[in-house]
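Table 4 source record.
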Amino acid sequence: MQRILVVEDDLDIQELLKNFLQEAGYEVILASDGTEALSIFSSSQSDLVLLDVMLPKIDGFAVCELIRKQSQVPVIMLTALSGEEEQIRGLDLQVDDYITKPFSMPILIRKIAAVLRRSSVLQGDEHKTIAYQNLILDCDNYTATVDGTAFELTQREFEVLKELLTNQGRILTRQNFLNKLWRYDFYGDERVVDTHIKNLRKSWALILFRQSEGWDIKLLKKIKGSLFTKVFLVTAVMLLCISLLVFGMLAWLMPQTYSNKLNAVLDERAQGFVSELEQVPLSDSGGLFDQFVADMEINSVELYDSSGDFVPLPTKEFNNEWGVHIAQSAVAGLGEISPFLSNRYYFSFSDCSDRYTLVVFGEAEHISELQQSFIRIFPFILLTVLTVAFVASWLYSRMITKPVLEISRISEKISGMQLDWTVDEQRTDELGTLGKSLNTLSRNLSAALSDLQNANRKLEADIEHEKELEQARTNFFSAVSHELKTPVTIIKGQLEGMLLGIGAYKDREKYLTRSLEIANTLETMVQEILTISRLETAEAELKKDYFDCVQVIKSYLSETEDLIIGKDLQIYLNVPPSAFVTGNKMLMEKVFSNLIGNAIKYSPHKASIYISARAEHDWINISIENTGVNVPEDSIPKLFDAFYRVDQSRSRKTGGSGLGLYIVQEILRQHGSKCAVCNTQSGVKFSFMI
């Protein structure tokens, strides 16, 4: 036999549900508040939970949330709250159905059977862990991991992904998802499924990107995100390139310049030598050749006749064989052969008219040494350039970016509306001007923001007041909905039970009497609601009467004498023979009946009630104190709010609807007074002046 846990604080609805469910063949467990429901759920196995929302101690939403953390047992909410916000909240908590009061018992029984059938199918298909390649779904904890990395998903996205993985190879339509996951009549856009799948794709792509992201990507992100780093790198590269360019130009131009200088010297001496040769005959030129060749800057000399044939030098000290060969030298370190400096000169000896060609080779060894020097010092120059470039770049970058970074930091504060800052104004350049402008902007913004905040506080107070009024209206409709729908649900269910002959409802006379009692309660509630409506909408002046409030008190005590005797209460009156006041007698009778009636209703057996009335100047001070019970201190400021009750449920078992004290305060407000409440050593006391 399947077991159903019924969580309902109204005893009549409890009995109604119990009789119909037992008649349908279910075992029923009853709970009257949220705490009891959780205790029973933890200690016993339930196949389905019928859950009211407005429960004592813990409301139905909180109960459902706690149940869902430990079980996926089917939950059906039965409540008078029919607003869209409440229904969405319940469905977001994964309830299987949300039924509003009043409801039909035969239809409820069939809905319960349908939910239990679906639940049995789902439990058979349940997977605790689902793996696909490097993706693992933990269905118990609703978590997903990819290669050990957490895959962040909403609950609905998790369910969509789970449905896809459990139906691999099958084609799933949007309607498949809606029927399986949403599990209620969906009237929205079917594209909601597309949105969840799109979010899954984005999350999957993001986690793959995070896994593939290496140090190079992180370095690029660091460089792109840092102005100092970008300025430093650009400056260092520029300094390095310029330094190497200068070094290269020097390594090329200096040997070239030195070579040109040597050529000029060689040419000058050769020109003088040729001039001397033209003054002597060939046979007498040997001494001149010996003197010329002996010059340290002259490497060798060659002489050719007009037909281009080599002519032995008429020298007396040097062997002609060495001059036949073109002088060459090796440039150390380069591995290449370079010719010496050479020039050609044309002349004729004095004793003949034949034209001779003189080829003079100069010494180029110093040029090679200069080139090798540049090559040898290149590593040291490179190291020095790198060091200087990085140091200079760091100093330059710091000097350039420090004020910019400071302004950037300040701009972030401005975006966060933090104006407690100043910019250093010592600079005289454009950045200093910008800093001064920002300081002026800060002062102006601070002043404007201060004015705006003052106006905003007033606006917030107005908005808060409107919210309070709106909340009061919401609470009003919530209470009215419950207080009207619950009796209607009970009457409807009892009539259905009597018509269908369900269990105890076969005793029609008994339940017709109960239905009449509930109808009378419903009528009283409607009258109270109408009284509140008249009080809130009446703008005209109240009709003023001159009446004796002591007689009103005694009259009400006489009417409730049976109830007082039944609870064995002691009434202590400390009032004068008469106390006349000015006010609306009918409304003030309501004040006295509500306050004294509450004292009688909530006092335990054999408690005492103290009622006093004493004159203070032109006012009468009324106080009503009942012993044996106290009001929680945190509830005292809220006691006169519309529909507020110390017990947050709407059960008539634990009291009224929370309208009585609100009516009292409204009536007294219209009479220029106010009711006060406080706990005493022996109980609780209500007092007012009129």
